[in-house]
Amino acid sequence: MAFFSRDYEVFLLLAATDAPPLWNAAQWTPFAASLDGLMARARSKAGVRSHQYNPKGKPIAFGRLGWDAKSHAKWTHTAATTQARFMSLEAWAPTWTICEKDDQAPDLFLALANESLLGRAGKPLQFGQRLVCAIATDMGPEAAATLRQSLAQLAAQQDAVVFAHTRRQWGRAAYGGFTGAIQDMLIGGLFQPDDPHARPLDAATFREPWTRIGQA
To answer: Cα(25)–Cα(108) distance, rounded to whole angstroms?
Structure first.
C-alpha cells in the first residue's frame, strides 16, 4: 500500500470566536487525556510540534515534544504565559520520522490553528480556532468512535460553528507522488480560495464534502 492510500475518518471542528483556546492548559489537558488511549495504541510513540512566536515575532523553540504531561506543559499556555503567541500545533502518532521510515501514513493525526494568527489579526472572524483530527480506518471502528466522542464533547464546550466528518485517503496520487494530504488540510486545504470569514460556512465554502455532526 502506498503511503498516501491509507483510509481515514477525518473530523473538522471550527470553534466559536469566544471559545476558550484549546492551547490553554486548562482546555488541552482534559482533551489530551481523552485521547491518551488512542495515542497508546499507535504503532510507535507520538510526536508533537508547535509553532509559536514571541512578541517580537521570533519563533520559540520547545525542543522535542511528545504526547505526555511534561511535553504538554512546555507548549500550552497558562495565566503566566505572556511571551508566547500560539499559531499552530501538529501531533503525529507515530512521529513523522517513523512514518517516513515505515513508508506508512500515521495511525492518528491532529492539527490545530489559531485563526487570528493566520494573517487575520484584528479582522472579523466567524470562528477562532480550526482543528482537524484523522484516524486510520484500519485502527477499527471503536477507535474512530472514541475519537468522535472526544471531539463531540469538545465541540459542545467550544460552541463549535462547524463540527463535521468525512472519509478519505491520506492523499491523492499525483506526479509520481501524492498531493492534497491530510497534513496540509488545516492551512491550505479546507476552504475555497475566497475568505471563509466573508461568506456562509456552507458546502460551497469548503474544498471537500463534509457531513455535519449533531447540532454544530
So the answer is: 21
CA separation for the pair 8, 111 (Å, rounded): 15
Short-list 126, 107, 104, CA closest to 116: 126
3-state secondary structure of 91: strand
Answer yes or no: are the C-beta atoms of 64 and 70 closer than 8 Å. no
If you search the block for the grid coordinates 481523552, which residue do you land on?
34
**Mean pLDDT, contiguous 10-residue spans, the chain (216 residues):** 78 97 97 97 96 95 96 96 94 94 93 87 88 96 97 96 95 67 88 91 94 76
pLDDT at 117: 86
Q: Is the pTM of this model over 0.85?
A: yes
Q: Name the residue among 126, 128, 112 with its Cα closest to residue 52.
A: 112
Distance between CA atoms of 189 and 103, rounded to whole angstroms? 23
SS3 107: coil
Q: Are 132 and 182 in contact (CB under 8 A)?
A: yes
Set of cell numbers at residue 55: 512578541
* Beta strand segments in the chain, E: 7-15, 47-53, 85-93, 108-114, 129-136, 162-169, 172-174, 177-179, 211-212
Sign of CA dihedral 53, 55, 57, 59: negative
Q: Which grid coordinates belong to 34?
A: 481523552
Closest by CA position to 153, among listed 70, 210, 216: 216
